[in-house]
Amino acid sequence: MYEGHHHAEYLQFFRIYEACQALHADEWDAEFMFQDWEGIPSQFVSECSIDWDFIAAYKRAEEEGREAAFIAWAEYTGECDYDAFDDAYRGEAESEEDFAREMVEDNGLLNEVPEPLRSYFDFEAWARDLFSSGYVFHDGYVFSN
After folding, report:
1. How far apart are CA 14 and CA 21, in angstroms?
2. What top-level branch of life does the organism fall under (predicted)?
């Protein structure tokens, strides 16, 4: 698996893996070694195994265009359940404060506040509260616990 996580690279990996399986089909318990890898969090791959549940979940994330977010979530949580990722995923942001600002704007939390007073809202404090009570910011992605 390579950085960039392109579907074609995964297809190439699976073709190689299938070719190895075919080559060693006459062996009772063929062992495959993964000497080097990139783009898979280390808890899901080792020299002698790959967590195929991670691969399946990654493929679902890729279909949704959220593979990088899934990788970040898997690294942070140590889990590879796509449905749990989907439930936790809240979006992408440059920072915790940017996410808090977007949340306020998207939900119209200040709509009832007169325009001249909106600049007094403390987005930094709002972000601090959000991310100390259930939200997680990891590698540019936001997840809920």
Report:
1. 10
2. Bacteria
Sole residue written with tokens 């392109």? 6
The CA distance from 119 to 77, in Å, is 36
pLDDT tens for residues 70-96?
A: 999 998 998 989 999 999 999 999 999
Residue 78 sits in which domain range?
1-88
Asked if residue 60 lies in contact with residue 82, where contact means CB atoms within 8 angstroms, the answer is yes
The DSSP line for the chain is --TT--HHHHHHHHHHHHHHHHHTTTSTT---------SS-GGGEETTEE-HHHHHHHHHHHHTT-HHHHHHHHHHH----HHHHHHHEEEE-SSHHHHHHHHHHHTTTTTTS-HHHHTT--HHHHHHHHHTTTEEEETTEEEE-
- pTM score, whole prediction: 0.72
